[in-house]
Specification:
heterodimer, A: about 160 residues, alpha+beta, Glutaredoxin, 2 domains, 4 strands, elongated, B: about 600 residues, alpha/beta, Rossmann fold, Ubiquitin-like (UB roll), 5 domains, 5-stranded mixed β-sheet, 24 helices, globular
Chain lengths: ~160, ~600
């Protein structure tokens, strides 16, 4: 039953994606905005979605795949409920963001880029977030945590563990 | 029009938003409404004030009181004391070091702002970026009007050329010349592109301009369109900048409503329209040919030039592409003239430059100074020097394409050419300060790691060469460096710089070359003595307990691998074979009895 509903949901999203493609039809260079729409809808761009896009936009799958794998914004597999992004910009790095990332990896048992088995956390190192005044910085989904120390990490993670 | 007796400006830039300024605005409005002051006092969310270190920042006009580190709990006091009774809340007023607490400084007296000249950032922290009327009230769209009604396209190009404006994205190519080339290309379709794919780690000036003054970019792009004969433009902006994207969309919508974008602008028959395209997280897309490939919906890979974009650019059509900060100067140049612009800066580098000051510095933030200002002024007078009494070691400019500048060169004036002479470059304007605790070999390794990750893989020198360099650097910081490594690095660096396809690869070796030039002794210490002089590289340092130890056992209790032993109230010791160098003991010690050696 639940599998059936998940499938319904997936079909629904594909219909929404078709709307996006229709809106962009005829627009030059529409593949990127379409992929960005798909990423937002599905949380990632899995192979069946890429095939769907290729079919609907009349481009080859290799082209869609080439673009989807070139940009770091597009994920081929789903990310965790909470995406932790540790800023690895220079200002954060010289103020110790590597130690923060190491601590997160240690506590969560994850390497950068990995998602926990329960699907709760994805740990990633990200490009400069531009909040250098708060260095070192990380974001957990939309929340910004600044002036971090490794010691503060377990406490911050605890507030997300329950949810 | 409504008249207010006071205006409360709250910084809505990314730094202050991250530290809670949106909640401040809500709380201020709630409180003012409750006291019936909402018709007398207006709260405005502006762009970045620049002094991110002091955020969230609030300024109250007409007094010009500058409040720093304002928390939601402080709002009630500001409203009931300052806005209701006219009494400044002293404890929240920003102070320079050594100020008497009773001093109520205005913006222009604060050390951080005193040495600055704001052209590109003129409206940031001054106007509400989500309201086109405020932009217009500050001379907005007057330059476009002047260009369209009083100047020929050639006049516009001449004015920009005479101003000496050079590309603020880092390359420093003369903007007027670029426009001239694009204007000279004959075609029925041309494009204007804004490069807002700000990618240098530690640089956030473009984001602040987009967030604080989006109309300035729209206006400049329209002026450029008129000058080169284009009727369509694209702004390519990082998806990681949601506030900037939102405000740009709003600005385009408002400009359409006012007839400042679209068909027959200001009744002159000039048509110009803009689109926004989001970057998707690829550093190489800051390179102009890669950026255009990305707008076209392809992989963001660069291609050889010529043909230059001015001849064959976006969708194969002549295209002019400039960076955000470059455009941010254009309206002022048209309005106030090239001669005015040339009064700032130096002969070869006219105008001002915005820098994102970060790292080991007291006043982290955004700074705009005339070109030619010595680095020392920026770091010590504006930046307030190095925190915690540490010693300055180097300042890094130019991001992954730039280099590290040592203390003895701090009096070098900031110009495109002078920075290149000393082995760094202007870049987009990141300025990261490092102190004696930062290892220069590790910093070079950090940038190479970044380049290897971001190399698009199209050309071999960049894809494979940078990786080989990174492997050598990794070995050196792990204490496995060998004689001859430095020479190998130098040879690879020269080859990669000469043979890479685009700017990313051509400049990738710069961080290594500049640290080798000024901090060669640190490389040698790592390789020959297996020692990291900054005590940063884990493999090359030890934690040791010295005789200041009181035997409080704090270190022994936090050690995750039980490497610390000793009796209570007697000096402890660390078993170096067990120690994993996590630093927990170092942080736990309250008697400074643990040292890095």
């Amino acid at each position: 039953m639940s599998e059936h509903c998940e499938n319904c949901e997936h079909q629904d999203k594909l219909l929404k994606l078709r709307d996006i493609i229709e809106q962009k039809r005829g627009e030059q260079g529409a593949l990127m905005p379409v992929l960005q729409g798909a990423q937002e809808l599905f949380g990632c761009v899995p192979m069946d979605v890429q095939k769907f896009i290729a079919q609907e936009m009349h481009v080859t799958l290799s082209e869609v795949y080439g673009v989807a794998t070139f940009y770091s914004q597009f994920a081929l597999e789903p990310k965790g409920k909470y995406v932790i992004s540790v800023c690895m910009g220079t200002a954060c790095y010289v103020k110790g963001s590597q130690a923060v990332l190491d601590k997160l990896g240690e506590v969560l048992g994850l390497k950068s880029g990995e998602t926990s088995a329960d699907g709760k956390f994805t740990l990633s190192a990200t490009r400069c977030l531009g909040a250098c005044g708060l260095a070192p910085v990380m974001t957990i989904n939309e929340d910004v945590h600044g002036r971090l120390t490794p010691e503060a990490i377990p406490g911050i993670l605890a507030t997300y563990q329950e949810g | 029009m409504e008249i207010f007796r006071s205006h409360v400006l709250v910084c809505g830039g990314t730094g202050c938003t991250s530290s809670g300024s949106v909640k401040l605005v809500d709380r201020l409005n709630d409180q003012l409404g409750e006291l019936g002051l909402d018709k007398e006092v207006k709260v405005i969310k502006t762009g970045c004030f620049g002094l991110c270190e002091a955020g969230p920042v609030v300024i109250v006009y007409p007094e010009g009181t500058f409040y720093s580190h304002v928390q939601t709990e402080d709002v009630d006091e500001i409203v009931s004391e300052h806005l209701l009774k006219g009494r400044v809340v002293r404890r929240l007023v920003y102070q320079d070091k050594g100020d008497h607490p009773s001093v109520g400084k205005s913006l222009s007296d604060i050390e951080f702002y005193k040495h600055q000249t704001r052209v590109a950032l003129r409206n940031c922290g001054v106007i509400d970026p989500e309201n086109i009327d405020e932009y217009i009230a500050f001379d907005g769209y007057r330059a476009l009007t002047k260009a369209l009604t009083e100047m020929t396209p050639q006049d516009v190009i001449d004015e920009v050329s005479r101003s000496g404006l050079r590309g603020r994205g880092g390359g420093g190519f003369p903007t007027g010349t670029k426009w001239k080339f694009a204007a000279a290309s004959k075609d029925d379709k041309k494009y204007v592109v804004c490069n807002a794919d700000e990618g240098d780690p530690g640089a956030f000036m473009d984001r602040s301009v987009l967030e604080g003054d989006p109309h300035a970019i729209l206006e400049a792009m329209a002026i450029c369109g008129y000058a080169i004969g284009a009727d369509e433009g694209y702004i390519y902006v990082r998806a990681e900048y949601p506030i900037a994207v939102k405000r740009l969309n709003l600005a385009i919508e408002q400009a359409h409503e006012y007839g400042l974008l679209g068909q027959n602008i200001l009744g002159t028959g000039f048509n110009f329209d803009l689109h926004i395209r989001l970057g998707a997280g690829a550093f190489v897309c800051g390179e102009e040919t890669a950026l255009m490939a990305s707008i076209e919906g392809h992989r963001g890979e660069p291609r050889p030039r010529p043909p230059f974009p001015a001849v064959k650019g976006l969708f194969g059509k002549p295209t002019n592409i400039n960076n955000v900060e470059t455009y941010a100067n254009v309206a002022q140049i048209i309005l106030r003239g090239a001669d005015w612009f040339r009064t700032m800066g130096t002969e070869r580098s006219a105008g001002t430059k915005v820098f994102a000051l970060g790292g080991k510095i007291n006043n982290t933030g955004l700074v705009e100074v005339p070109m030619g200002t010595p680095l020392r002024t920026v770091i010590y007078d504006i930046g307030g020097g190095i925190p915690h009494g540490r010693r300055f070691k180097a300042v890094q400019t130019g991001g992954p394409s730039g280099g590290c500048i040592p203390a003895r060169l701090l009096d070098v004036p900031i110009e495109y050419d002078s920075l290149i002479e000393i082995g760094s470059m202007m870049g987009s304007g990141g300025m990261i300060v490092m102190d004696e605790d930062n290892c220069m070999v590790d910093i070079a390794r950090f940038f190479l790691d970044f380049t290897v990750d971001e190399s698009c893989g199209k050309c071999t020198p960049c894809r494979i060469g940078t990786r080989r360099m990174l492997e050598i650097l990794n070995r050196i910081v792990e204490g496995k460096g060998e004689e001859g490594d430095i020479e190998k690095l130098e040879r690879l660096a020269t080859t990669i710089a000469k043979t890479s396809l685009c700017g990313l690869g051509q400049t990738a070796p710069n961080p290594v070359l500049s640290t080798l030039r000024y901090f060669r002794d640190e490389y040698e210490a790592h390789i020959r003595d297996k020692r990291c002089p900054a005590h940063h590289c884990r493999s090359l340092m030890q934690y040791q307990i010295i005789d200041k130890c009181r035997g409080c056992t704090a270190c022994a209790r936090v050690c995750p691998v039980h490497a610390v032993s000793g009796e209570v109230r007697k000096p402890h010791a660390i078993d170096q074979d067990k120690c994993i160098k996590c630093g927990a003991c170092y942080d736990a010690c309250r008697f400074d009895a643990i040292i890095k050696a």
